[in-house]
Amino acid sequence: MTAAQEEHRWLAAEYALGVLQGERLQQARRRYAMEPVFRTDVDAWQEQLAPLQEDVQPVEPPDSVWRQIEQRVFERVTAPAPTLAEKLSFWRALSAATTAFAVVILLVLLVTPESALRPPASAPATLVASLNSSAGKAMFVATLDVKRLEMRVRRLPVAAHAADQVPELWVIPADGRPRSLGVIQGAAGARIAVDPAMQKLFQDGVVLAISLEPQGGSPTGSPTGPIPWTGALYQL
Q1: Alpha carbon of 7 to those of 42, 75, 212: distances in Å?
Q2: Contacts by 52-57 with C-beta closer than 8 Å and gap 24+?
Q3: What per-residue confidence (pLDDT) applies to 178?
Q4: Which stretches does DSSP call E strand in the chain?
Q5: Phi, psi angle pair for 53, to nearest 5°
Q6: Residue 128 has what pLDDT?
Q7: pLDDT tens-digit profile of 150-196?
Q8: Buried b or exposed e, range 22-37, using 16+ CB within 10 angstroms
Q9: CA-CA distances (angstroms) from residue 141 to 63, 127, 210?
Q10: 3-state SS assignment for residue 24
Q11: Distance CA 94, CA 102 (A)
């Protein structure tokens, strides 16, 4: 494989994972729109990434670990509303995080024969997000099938929480008001049907967040517990 082919494959993989920034992200978007071969490779990476977390099981950390996480992430839940500058700084910090999880996936999949990386010809348009901790570590991976309006959320083994809490998924559009997409009950994740009335909210770059709520979900229609995991949806 030539250096140019290797660069092509890395760029397609990084774009599929949603970890590109700046000029490389713009380059990948242009190539995806204009180059059928690059678009096929990106779609193939998505198909390869999808089943990786099917059989993983969550691992419950010691209480001391959870207390440290709870203290360090999203203390602003009960704090005054942040200023615009604070919001921009926060999301820029999140978008700059490159996780070890993404690197591991790339290293594993880059040794997969290219003949195994071809998706079905009818692969639907998809939005994908890595929901990360405040330290930039991937905890959940969410994919939205735009045509079927189905959100598929996979929990990574490190995404643990207290037994009396349940993760609840939210979409946060431009107006900043969270809308609940439902709770994630399964040990490995969940499939969530998206209300067609909410379809217009799912634009490239829209933010997803997961809060920890009482069993049954938020009683108020807004996040009431800590919000340790967030990420932006990007179109592939």
Answers
A1: 13, 40, 40
A2: 52/105, 52/154, 53/141, 53/154, 53/155, 53/156, 53/188, 53/189, 54/154, 54/188, 55/188, 56/154, 56/155, 56/156, 56/157, 56/188, 57/157, 57/187, 57/188
A3: 93
A4: 126-132, 138-145, 150-155, 165-172, 179-183, 189-193, 207-214, 229-232, 234-235
A5: -105, 20
A6: 87
A7: 999 888 876 667 778 899 999 998 888 999 999 988 777 889 999 99
A8: eeebeebeebbeeeee
A9: 24, 11, 11
A10: helix
A11: 15
| Token pair belonging to 103 | 């690197």
Cβ partners under 8 Å of residue 72, min gap 6: 134
Rounded Cα gap, residues 173 and 114, in angstroms = 37
Task: Tell me the average confidence (pLDDT) per consecutive run of 10 residues in the chain, 236 residues long.
Answer: 77 81 85 86 76 53 58 50 53 48 51 46 67 84 88 78 87 90 84 90 88 92 90 81
How distant, in Å, are the alpha carbons of 115, 159, 202 from that of 170? 37, 17, 11
Choose among 38, 35, 6, 42: nearest CA to 234: 42
Work out the number of other CB atoms within 10 angstroms of the CB of residue 110.
Answer: 13
Three-class SS state of 20? coil
